[in-house]
Every structure is written in C-alpha cells, then in structure tokens.
Amino acid sequence: MTTAILITDAFPLGSITETAFVVPEIEALAKAFARVIVIPTTALGPADAIPLPPNVEICRDWVESPLWRQKWRRALYLFTPGLWRRCGSPRTFTNLTFTAASIAFERWFLHRFIKGDLDLKDTVIETFWFDFPTAALGHMRKHIPSLRYVSRAHGHDIYTDRALKPRAEAIDQSQGIYCVSGFGADYLKKLFPGSADKIHSAPIGCTKLLPAHMAAGHKSTDRQLTFMSIARVAPGKGVGRILEMLRKLAVARPSTSIRWIHIGDGPLMSVLKSATGSITETNLSVELRGTRHNPEVQRMLTAEPIDWMMLLSDSEGLPISLCEGMAYGIPAIATDVGGVSQLVDDDCGLLLPPDCTPEEFVRGLLPYLDSDIRMDSLRRGAFEKWKRHFNAPALRHDFVARHLLPQK
Predict the structure, then answer these.
(1) Nearest alpha-carbon partner for 153 in 123, 176, 124
(2) What does the longest C-alpha to C-alpha distance in the chain come to?
C-alpha cells in the first residue's frame, strides 16, 4: 500500500477537540504510507496551524463543494431513487437524512477519487468516526470489491441514535470496525450480530506532550484539594453534577480549601455559571476557563498541583481527558459508564456508580484525603496505566501495522 486516506469530522478546519485524537493517527499513517490524504467532512473554522509530515495533504474539495456549502443541494438527495431501500427500517427522518448524506458523499468520492487518480490496489481508507462516510464506502464496495476501508468508532457514534442508523452494510463490507473500548465493541455486536466478526476493540489512548513532566499533588497537611474536569457543558456530560459533589465535599471538609477548574464550553454554560454564582460554601472556589487547545490543557496539568481529574458523564466511549491526566500521574474520578472501567479502576482512581449521590462520592473519596501513601499509590498507578495500555504513539503504530498494512 502506498496511499492512505483518512476521513475526519472537521480536522484540521477549526476542530479544537478532534486534533488531539487525529494527529497521532496521521503521524502513524505518514510513517507507513508514501502519501496520506486527509478529508474533513465539515468545516468549523479556518485551518488550524498544526505542523504535519510533508507527505500529508489536506483535501478540502468536499467542504468547498456546493454539496456541503448549499443545504438545498444536499436536500435534493432525499429524492434519490432507492433512498428508502438503502435506508432500511426504521425510516425515520434522521435515518433518511443520514442516508441522503451518505449518497451525496459517495457520488462526490466516486467522481473525485475512483474516477480520478486513485489506484485502489495501492490504497486503504480509514474513517476516523463511524458516520455517514463509512456508510457511503460500504455501499461503494458492493460495486467496487477492490475498495478497502476500516473505521474507528468512539462514543457518540456508538451509543446515541447514530448507532441505530442504517450501517449494517458499512460494517459488513469493511475490513473492520475498531471501537475505542471493549464495551463499545460488545455494544455494537449486540446491535449488529450478523457482522460481529468485523467488530473489534482498539483503544486510541493519548499523547503525552510533555514527556519529562509529572503533575504535582497536594499533601494531606496542605488542607487543599484541586479537581479538574474537561468536558463540554452539555446534556449528558454531568458537569453540573460535579458542582453538586464538590459542594457536598466542602461541607464535609470545612477546614479544607477545595478548588475546581473546568475546561470546556457548551449550551449549558449559562446554567452552570448561574449555579456557581449561588455557592455558599466559603471553602469552595470555581474557575470556568472555557475552551482551550490541547497543548495548553496539558501545560495546565503540570503548572500547579492537580489532585484529581473528574468526569461524571451519563455515557462515554473511553474518555481521553481522563487519559491525559493519568499520563501526568493524576488519579481519576469517573462514573462507570461505557468504556470508562477499562481506564479507571481501584489502582488509579475512583469508579462511581452512574447514579452516584453526593454522599456516596464523599464516602468514596474520604479514605484518600488523609493518606499520602494511598494518594501516591494512585498517582503511580495512573501513570503506569497510561504507560502500559494507553500510550497513543505505540497504540497507533500498532494499529496501522496490524490493520491497515497488508499482512505477510
């Protein structure tokens, strides 16, 4: 194989969060293939100034085409003959628009690459998200057997209604669908039992941008605790619940100064700001720092003592925000949803029930608050968990070698 095509969501066109996921993949692909073509399927802003290997090129033809820029043109595909047959059941509006998008992308891809300069026998395609481009490739391969593609699958493209969209064909025709967690793989296998042999687990991990650094933590005698969370302030992400938990902890530990730093923005930010404005616990402070690029976030992890990373989502794939904290030796507190238990356990953090109450949170945390020995053990365990199982460069190179390159 000499060419790899990577289909992203928005990277590198204004994708703040996606960058941390995609860049390690591109670096691994660039070392294995002579040519790497990255195709973003949406544009959220101007191109990010991210240095890429010289053999990597960004194809903007799709996002600059009338199909993407003019919604009415995409809407015309709702009247494509055979749309209902490809959509399958249930024929909801969501499924119909998903199928129409896949048809539009398929026709663009055929014109741009299959009828262009792409040599299929020397090309492999990867969709970084299990979305409509994967469905388009699945339908194409029925007519072009030499087409070879795989797809990653994460969280929102597995557990939400996206997973119920017409994608059985996309799985069946692929060389493999690779979920970031074993939980996600099992979930998809239950949805699509006929294609279970095509569904696998392949974690993506995270890259430690400051390899020589570790995070500092407070000692029990400091009477200080700092929690950090990184998440969209949106329904299902549980950011408001973090405030409830920490308020309860502040009441239980009145002599301890508790600080919460949150990174991220979203539709519920005004609600969160209103809630933080009504805090009565004088030993609790909150810093809502909004959206930050990944390099800046990783610098924050080592710039001052951070004791715990927190994530209380209702649903997750395998959260990279916790993984990044663990790379710097920060234990994690998280709800046991999705693939979180593959990352967080008793050796590196505190795993809470999905419906955890503030009282349960405080009881679970208390054994660590006055024991430097236990906290030091968790810090070591967090770093070792990342080093052995979630080191992105090692994981990505292994993925490319095993699943994208021809096997001898």
Answers:
(1) 176
(2) 71
pLDDT at 406: 81
Contact 67, 74 (CB under 8 A): yes
Top-tier CATH class for 3-205+392-404:
alpha beta
Residue listed under structure tokens 């240095």 = 51
Report the side by side order of strands in the sheet with 35-40. Answer: 56-58, 35-40, 3-8, 123-127, 149-153, 177-179, 199-201
Per CATH, 3-205+392-404 and 220-389 having the same topology is answered yes
Q: Could you tell me the sign of the dihedral formed by the alpha carbons of 83, 87, 91, 92, in that order?
A: negative
Pair 137, 170: CB distance under 8 Å? yes
- What pLDDT does residue 247 have? 97
Q: Where are the domains of the chain?
A: 3-205+392-404, 220-389
Rounded (5°) CA angle 135-138-139: 90
Characterize the bridge pairing of strands 284-288 and 257-263: parallel
**How far apart are alpha carbons 349 and 331 in whole angstroms?**
5
Contacts (Cβ under 8 Å, ≥6 apart) of 213:
302, 328
Q: How far apart are CA 208 and CA 148, in angstroms?
A: 32
CB atoms within 10 A of CB 161: 11
Q: From CA 390, how far away is CA 202, in angstroms rounded?
A: 10
User: What predicted TM-score, i.e. pTM, was given to this entire model?
Assistant: 0.91
CATH classification (class only), 220-389: alpha beta
d(CA 347, CA 206): 19
Helices and strands in the chain: count of H runs, count of E runs: 16, 13
**With a cut of 70, which residues of the chain have pLDDT below it?**
1, 72, 74, 160-165, 408
3-state DSSP call for residue 162?
A: helix
pLDDT computed for residue 294 by the predictor: 92
Residues 13, 17, 23, 29, CA torsion sign: negative
Contact of 301 with 324, CB cutoff 8 Å: yes
Give me the helices (H) in 204-282, please. 239-252, 269-276
DSSP H helical segments within 88-226, as ranges?
Answer: 93-109, 132-143, 156-159, 168-173, 182-191
Q: What is the pLDDT of residues 23-48, one digit of tens each?
A: 999 999 999 999 999 999 999 888 88
Name residue, tokens 């990373």.
309
Tokens of 365: 């945390």
